[in-house]
Structures are given as structure tokens and as C-alpha cells.
Amino acid sequence: MKPAITRLHVVDALRGFAIVSIMLLHNIEHFDFYFKPETLPLWIKAVDKVIWDSLFFLFGGKAYEIFALLFGLTFFIQSNNQQKKGKDFRGRFAWRLFLLLLFGIVNSAFYEGDVLSVYALIGYFLIPFAKMNNKAVLIIALVLMLQPYEWVVFFSALQNPDAVVGDPKSWAYFGRAWEYIPGKSILNTWWGNLTNGKAAVFIWTWEEGRVFQTLSLFLLGMLSGRKGLFKQTEKSRKFWLIALIVSAIVFIPLFMLKSNTVPGIESMVVRRPLGIIVQTWSNFSFMLVLVSGFTLLFWSKALNKALNVFSPLGRMSLSNYMIQSLVGSFIYYGFGLGLYKYTGATYSLIIGIVLAVLQGMFSAWWFKKHHHGPLEWLWHKATWIELRKK
Fold first, then answer.
1. Which of 52, 131, 181, 194 has its CA 20 to 30 A from that of 309?
2. Residue 262: is its pLDDT beyond 80?
3. What pTM value is reported for the model?
4. How many domains does the chain have?
């Protein structure tokens, strides 16, 4: 059976779309080093705000959700392929996650906000669900998406609404980035990112409800594979059309509620967990708008060719994700060009677009001669390595 027939090109393109979205966000964030130059003209600052708000509205918290959804889908595809051969993929998947963690550690040296290490660790919780029936998986995924821990915090807060709540703990760690990112030493930056930076990200991931949300998306992605939702069939088209309509309708009140920071509740200790719950569902619903809309447009004759330009980027998403961290940190951090001091969202967006185009061109060129991206090839070879018996 030829790979070209069985490969889900819409998934490659969707993953590539997510990579570009992440690239643009990372650039306007200066790769997790927030700084607004004060010397820019007022009109540029005004444009910066529009760009910042627009990109975060479109992709903030959603691009990584697409990645998480497709992570679960990939787990199903690999497991299913091995099952057809009479093999159990779970042990090999655990080893594959360990390899991903190593990639994540390397990436974290350049960019503290790395998500590979987070996905690798949460991915281990996906393994017990591999053989569970669809109904049970769906129920657990929805419960996780409901943010059960935040509901416990919320109801506990109702018992003492006047309690004083401090800033999230991750803020203090993120603030310490000023001690090493603006500096000229790349070794100090690496050490700072791998110690203080990773602590900041792991704590932030928990505080923002990303742990439950990410595992939920892994499970939903696995279910989408079981149901064949990304195969181009009439049944799948109907599913994504319904998903688009329902998620768009649901998003509107959720976004309004999120924007008003849960009106009518003055207590911060109550508002914080409720805000995380609302934000989780607001982002999830808009993510479904993006995924369903992109999938339907990709399957249309009019836009298939145009959207297919994202496919090479998606096929080597691991390589592209790590390359953007290396290049981006050099562009914005003190050990490199230090452009964080001079570029607001407008200039950073332009840089991001240029980098995305260059990555797209490189990816397309690479696949003219290779079947896997460079790091994808290494990951694949290491995943299936066999220990020789004496």
C-alpha cells in the first residue's frame, strides 16, 4: 500500500498551520521575553496593540490545542498500525515519549516555553487509555476538560470569599528571566532557561489548567482517529460542519463571559478558578472552529492547493518547532541580536512571517529528497531501535 494514498494530508496541513500560528505568536512575545520598546512612534504602538490582540484572539491557547489534538491522533495511528501487525505499541510509545522529552530539554535551553517536554510527560497518562472503549474515553476527556481541580478550588473559595489571593507563583519565576535573557552569555541563558525557566513553565502549566486540558485533547485526538474523522468521507464532512456551527455559536457567549472576567463576582479568590474554567472552554470552542473550518476548506477543490502549502511544514513539525526556538532566541535574546529592545508586535510579526515563509520553502525543498524531516528521521530511528542480543 502506497504511503501517498494512506497519508492524511489534511492532518499534515493542519499541523503546519499550527506551527505557523505558533511561530507568529512566539515572535510577538519575543520568545517568552515580554518587552515593549518605549521609543517607537505612537502610531506603531497603536498598530502593535491591534496586532497583539488580534493574534492572541486567533491563536492564543488555540494553536497548542491543535497540536495536542493531533498528538493524540498520531498516537492512535501508530498504535493502530502496530495492532494490525499483531504488536502492542504502548511500550514503544513510552520509549518514544522519553525521546521526545530529551528533544524538549534541548529545545528548552533556547526557549523556556517549550511544549515538547510538557507533552512528553503528560503523554504517559495517555497510555492507560489505549485499550479503553470509546464511550469511557469520551466521558473522561469531557470531565478533564471541565477542569475538575479548578471546580474544587472554586467551591472551596466560596467558603471564604474574602481570602487574600496573591499573584500566581509562576510570575516570580518568569520575572527572574531578566537576570539572564538580556545578558550576552549563551551559557547563562541556557542554564537559566533549563532551571528557572522550566520551573516557571511547569508551574504556569498547572496554574492555567493546561495539564487536564492537554490530556483531554490527547484523548479526543485519539478518538478522532478511531472514528476516522480526518478521512475525507461524507460522514466526516457532516461531523466537521456540525462541529463548526455548534462551536462557533458556543464560543460567542463564552468569549463575552471571558472578556468580562465573570461579571458579578468581586472576590478574586473565586474569580480566578472560574476564569480558568471559562477560558478553557472558550479556547476549546474556538480551536474547534479553526480545526473544522480548516478541514472543510482543505477538502474543497477551490482551496485545497492553497492550504496544502502548510503540509511540508507539518510533516516536519518537530524540526520546524525546534529550529524556530534556536533562530528566534538568537534574534531576540541578549546573546544574539537582542532585538527584543527594538521590535514591538508589528516588526516582530514581519520577522515571524519571513521566518515562516523560509521554513516553508526549506521544508518543501527537503521533502523533494527525503521522506522524513531531519529530527523526525532521528526520532523515528531511535524509536524503533532494537537491542542486539549476544
1. 52
2. no
3. 0.94
4. 1
